[in-house]
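Q: How would the C-alpha cells look for this protein?
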Amino acid sequence: MFKYAAAVSFDEDTGQYEISFRDFENLHSVAFTEDDIELEARDALTGMIGELIDSRIPINEPSSAKEGEIVIHLPVLTCLKVALHNAMISTGTRKADLARKLNQKGPQIDRLLDVSHASKVETLEQALYLMGYEVSVSVSKLV
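A: Here is the predicted structure in C-alpha cell form.
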C-alpha cells in the first residue's frame, strides 16, 4: 500500500518536531511532542493527498525510506481512494463516466474520492474493478 517516508528533526528554538516528506516537496508539518509525530505526519499527508485528488493531479508511488526516516502508513480506505484517483487519470475516466458505470449520481463519486469521507470499501473495490483493476489485501506481522 502507500507508505511514505518522512524526515523528522527537532528544532531547539521552537521546541517542535519538524516533519518533511521527500515525495512531496512542499509538504511540511510540525508536532509538539514525540508521541504526536506520526499522527501529525499522517494528517498532513492525508490533507495533501486530498488536495491532489481535488486538483486531479496523479499521486506518485512512495519512494523507499532512507536511513533515519520514519514510514507513515496511510489508512486502507485512503489507499483505495488514491488507487481509484490514479486509475481514473490513467484510463481517462471522468467522474460522470464512473457514475454511470456504478449507477450512481455525481455527488456520490465526489464522496467516493473524498479522503475525509468514510466510503464503503466494497464500492471502491467495485469502481476499481469496473476500470480494469483488481484489489488485493495483505496482512503481515510487524517486525
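The chain has two domains: 3-73, 76-130.

The chain is about 40% helix and 20% strand.

Upvote if useful.
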